[in-house]
Amino acid sequence: MKTRILMISILAFLASGSMSAQCGIKNTAFKSGEFLFYDLYFNWKFVWVKVGSAGMSTVMSLYDGRQAYRTSLVTRGNNKLDKFFTMRDTLLSYCDTDLSPLYFRKGAREGDRYYVDELWYSYPQGNCHLKQHRINNDGTHKWQESKYQNCIYDMMSIFLRARNFDASKMKKGENIPMPVSDARHLSNSWLKYRGKETFKIEGTNEKYRCLVFSFIEREDGKNHELIRFFVTDDANHIPVRLDMFLSFGSAKAFLKSYKGIRNPMTSRLK
To answer: How far apart are CA 248 and CA 221, in angstroms?
Structure first.
């Protein structure tokens, strides 16, 4: 009788959608307590000007009663940028220990516009179910739900997942489908592996062997490269440089400091 009850409980647990292993990946790149800090630059009249900072943290926390990685990214523009464009973004993500996405929130003040996106993930019968919520600039709320047979990600979970790719098995020019959703729609997007480069952080003597990826989205029949990022060619896969192609111009982020990394930084060149 006890065995039968246990089996029923396990089947009920699986049917509830609490398991999301089909969208997971083994994490070898980071651990709880990792903190990354960046300087932000904006191209102003062909000159790169420092316009702010960003910080990203990953800690083990609880989500819906179970252990999960809580990752936050906070970007803040300084007074130089505020004269032209206000940027105050806060992104929050919860992922299962296998990096399957569970929850995502983005609160963004960009220019004179403020909005909030939220996503809740569940995995009934092996599908990916999204509950989406958008708070618009005028304070109105929009709710919708979507179901997909394939795994869906957001801008934070795709980042954590990409850090755990095994580039030794990838070919230059290879495309990796990575559909990303916000609170409004699903984008046809992918990562493109561009190979390896050595990158020197400007104004320092820091050099790193890097793997280079592009995040590309197809819209209106055209491919648009949104972000190109350089990650350390070691077990950490820490982004040391990000090139962001924005609607109002180009921006870059350079790694300033880090702590709490999981593996030795063997990509750093002396």
So the answer is: 21
pLDDT in tens, 103-151: 999 998 777 788 999 999 999 988 999 999 999 999 999 999 999 999 9
Within 13 Å, how many C-alpha atoms sit on residue 46's CB side? 0
Alpha-helical segments (H) within 126-249: 157-162
Strand-pairing partners, residue 144, are: 132
**Which residues make beta-bridge pairs with 38?**
54, 255
Please state, in angstroms and rounded to a whole number, the distance separating the CA atoms of residues 150 and 46.
Answer: 42
Query: Residue written as tokens 């307590």?
Result: 33
pLDDT at 54: 93
Cα separations in angstroms, 115 against 91, 142, 178, 259: 12, 11, 24, 31
Give the Cα-Cα-Cα angle 227, 243, 228 (nearest 5 degrees): 40
C-beta pairs of 58-64 under 8 Å, 24+ apart in sequence? 58/30, 58/31, 58/32, 58/33, 58/34, 58/160, 59/32, 59/33, 60/32, 61/94, 63/94, 63/102, 63/103, 64/102
Sequence-distant (6+) residues with CB within 8 A of 149 are 127, 128
Instruction: Show the beta-strand stretches assigned E in 45-149.
Output: 47-63, 66-77, 87-95, 101-110, 113-122, 128-135, 141-148
Integer Cα distance of 187 and 108 in angstroms: 19
Q: Which amino acid is at 165?
A: F
d(C-alpha 174, C-alpha 212), whole Å: 12
This model's pTM is above 0.90: no
